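Run log // design_07
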């Protein structure tokens, strides 16, 4: 499975909302500028994320988008599934895939694809937006450690 710009930009936008969680709705234009994403493209992604219940929107002058749940409750896997579809390296390991394959029950390589799918799902489902925030803070602290002020 290759993550497209839909998945990449969606995770970046959700990360932006997670970093600013609790500060109220954030205008789409602000997220687009901070993440260097087309506002029009981001609007499409946020519509899908809203329909999936991952974000909520507020209309009006002070409106925008915000996370529907706390960052620690939103796994990256939910974002990817919403924007990209099933997490599967091959069609034969998606749900109900047995109907399209004549060798489904005796295919040795399918076991490999299932293990790969399971490992991708495990990483994506155990990594939350809060995990990404913590990782970002760790990386920033690491960068700051090499700063010398005279």
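design_07 sequence
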């Amino acid at each position: 499975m290759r993550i497209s710009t839909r998945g990449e930009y969606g995770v970046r936008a959700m990360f932006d909302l997670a970093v600013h969680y609790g500060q109220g709705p954030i205008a789409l234009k602000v997220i687009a500028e901070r993440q260097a994403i087309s506002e029009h493209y981001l609007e499409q992604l946020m519509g899908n994320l809203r329909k999936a219940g991952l974000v909520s929107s507020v209309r009006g002058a002070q409106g925008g988008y915000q996370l529907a749940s706390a960052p620690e409750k939103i796994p990256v896997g939910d974002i990817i599934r919403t924007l990209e579809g099933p997490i599967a390296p091959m069609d034969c390991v998606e749900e109900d895939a047995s109907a399209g394959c004549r060798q489904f029950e005796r295919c040795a390589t399918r076991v490999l694809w299932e293990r790969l799918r399971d490992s991708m799902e495990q990483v994506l489902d155990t990594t939350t937006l809060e995990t990404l925030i913590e990782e970002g803070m760790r990386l920033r602290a690491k960068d700051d450690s090499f700063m010398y002020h005279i």
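The longest helix spans residues 108-126.
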